[in-house]
Design brief:
8-stranded mixed β-barrel; 176 residues; LD_TPept_cat_dom; single chain; peptidoglycan synthesis; LD-transpeptidase; 3 helices
Length: 176
């Protein structure tokens, strides 16, 4: 009985209690929509920025689901072709925000820049989400490890998705 009481007491005051929905309203949250090759960054319950992106050249290349940012890197190394970070030939650009899709460690799937700005808006990647250089650098500075990334393929609006996921409230909607 003493063990159960101690466990309950410790659980209630644990930093991960209560175990519930994530993101919590106000947390940083990224939504990627493969249907229109756009992404949004939500923070403090509001859409902070909308980005044009590129996703997988085949529908199943860019995984769908909710993932967690687990690694970040400036001037990432491109392992596939042994290209050092900072090299203009590096297709990952200047920033890497890796997430844990398909049971990976954040080094296979990620949000990253590009050395080919004209590819943005197209279905051309091997599975990652490609951003304009200035966009990924802006995002990189605002996204902490642990941020949730939701990748969908839908005609729903970003606002509807964010409301459904608990990343925004009605008060955070853009009113025109």
């Amino acid at each position: 009985m003493k063990f159960i009481f101690s466990f309950l007491l410790l659980s209630m005051f644990s930093p991960i209690w209560p175990l519930g929905a994530n993101p919590v309203l106000g947390d940083p949250f990224i939504i990627v929509n493969k249907e229109n090759n756009k992404a949004v960054f939500i923070d403090e319950g509001k859409i902070q920025s909308i980005f044009h992106i590129s996703t997988g050249k085949e529908q199943n290349f860019t995984p769908e689901g909710k993932f967690t940012v687990v690694v970040k890197a400036k001037n990432p190394y491109y392992r596939r072709k042994n290209i050092q970070g900072g090299n203009p030939e590096n297709p990952l650009g200047t920033r890497w925000i890796g997430f844990d899709a398909r049971e990976t460690d954040g080094r296979i799937y990620g949000l990253h820049g590009t050395n080919n700005e004209l590819s943005i808006g197209k279905y051309v990647t091997e599975g990652c989400v490609r951003f304009h250089t200035d966009s990924i650098e802006w995002l990189y500075d605002r996204v902490p490890i642990g941020t949730k990334v939701l990748i969908v393929n839908t005609t729903k609006t970003f606002e509807d998705i964010a409301l459904q996921e608990g990343a925004m409230s009605e008060a955070g909607l853009m009113h025109e």
